[in-house]
Amino acid sequence: MSRSFTPKVVTANALLEGDVVYLTNDDRWTRSLKDAVLLMDEADADLRLLQAQAQTGVVVGAYLADMQDGPDSPEPIHFREAFRRKGPSNYAHGKQEQF
Amino acid sequence: MYAYNDFDKSFLASRNAQFRAQVERRIAGHLTEDEFKPLRLMNGVYLQLHAYMLRVAIPYGTLNSGQMNMLAHLADKYDKGYGHFTTRQNIQYNWPELRDIPDMLDDLGTVEMHAIQTSGNTIRNVTADHFAGAAADEIADPRPVAELIRQWSTDHPEFQFLPRKFKVAVTGSESDRAVTRAHDIGLRMVERDGVAGFEVIVGGGLGRTPMLGKVIADFLPREDLLPYLEAIVSVYNLLGRRDNKYKARIKITVHENGLEKIRDLVNERFVEIKARFSGIDQELFKNIEAAFAAPEFAVKSVDAYDSARQSDLVFRAWSDTNLHAHKADGYSIVTVSIKKHGATPGDASAEQMRVLAGIAARFGHDELRISHEQNVILPHVHKSDLPEVHSILKANGLGTANIGLISDIIACPGMDYCALATARSIPIAQQIATRFDELKLEHKIGELKIKISGCINACGHHHVAHIGILGLDRAGVESYQITLGGDHTETAAIGERAGPGFSADDIIPAIERLVEAYLELRQSDEETFIESYRRLGLAPFKAALYPAEDEKSDAA
What we know:
The complex is a heterodimer. Chain A is an alpha+beta fold.
């Protein structure tokens, strides 16, 4: 039996703005976690990450972040990813209003 | 203040043009991120959690009104209308876009500012006493020395790739407001037989291995300063460990090799280097010193100040906490709190920056300072102007009377912004300040330094706080560890860890229990928290923090 795999999303920062971005199912980059593709298979996740890391003219620092399947969006498991999704807690800079 | 000469201007212009070309090449895809990263870091550009961050150097924390207005302009034009003043006397912009950063640097260049060596394994912005040039207890203004070191260290070809970053702090006073013992090199001005010199401290630092610096030279003649500093840094450059990032700072080099060996090597190297210094540094220093001549202080009545203190209780409370003794009769040093209860420590809006610039131009001999405690100083204000200054500050959310009190908290950006952070700092600072404001206790508590870091790197100076708070990630949950008894002054001490960490929900009540215990334990209203702690030790404070454990051990 294969070891259990925690679902992932591919995330990075946009090269020009620095914004947090996530990879979508059709290999675009989105600012919204709910539009990200939740990768359930380890080999698929590794491949998508390699492809993302190759996009050096679009994003910086791509990595796989642990997520769980939420009702209408992947949900961060770690608080760091929750903050990246939402923005800083001291000012409402736009993204926070969605939560 | 020092004004750039033609060399400085042309150096900065060519450096900015060079970085502009590097940014363009990165965007065009001719540089990879691996190639670009060290170049952007050398120019103060980080990539943080949500955006790029530009860290702008404020050399030894000194600004004039034109420079402060420019900082406001950058906040408005390229950021979200505010900036964050840091414990390194710098300012950070949290939201610039990569394409805009070369324009920001050009704008800064027009007021003789830059972001060079605010990152990377180089000699960083030299910090100094924020009361420099104004303090009543000062031997001499440390800023000319800091400026000399800035000129020597900027783009120094031998020191662009040190084993690790390198921080120098200078103070000209007996009271150490520059935390000199927590820097790679700390310089304290001293006098011996009427001759000015320096006590040179080496190997201090906070971070994951906090250490207080050790005295490598108890009296260094002033003219030997640069060759001696060059000797220290070149010895470190060879001996410092490059195999392990966590053991690369000079504090570890000194610890592993011993102070005696380091001193011998530095002295040997000093002899070689000193011979190569032709005296040009001393000529430069004379010019720099002249640029920092004190303003012409006015002699006038302080009646307006005295009568405002009698008639206005709010002004009186503010003047009790936010003013410090000035060397000139009739003058005060004003510390403007940018820590209104519940606000983010160190953040100032563009509007507030403009207000501060305006006050400095009108009432403050055009000078401002940024303190490592993340406040803004108006170093030279005549007492007769203080009622009006206070009223302008108050109208702009800058009149909080809390300097040195429990809500005057140092907090790093933490996980709200920083990519290295393991927990948030800002909300903890906001909640502590708000809570003690609700309790209306802070003036009763008196002097108490709380400092919060969101990771082990200790940008928030928690190790040298009376109450230090370190935010950590414990199995995917934010956890806050308390240290007690630290001291950032001339009686520097590293705080002692109190025990297990607290959750984000439990940390505020824990601080409240700690402070309540202090109020019960102190011998008089005059005994400060740190004095009580030194008298009593950790035990009674630990008992207040962990009451359940105390009961358990009683039962056993």
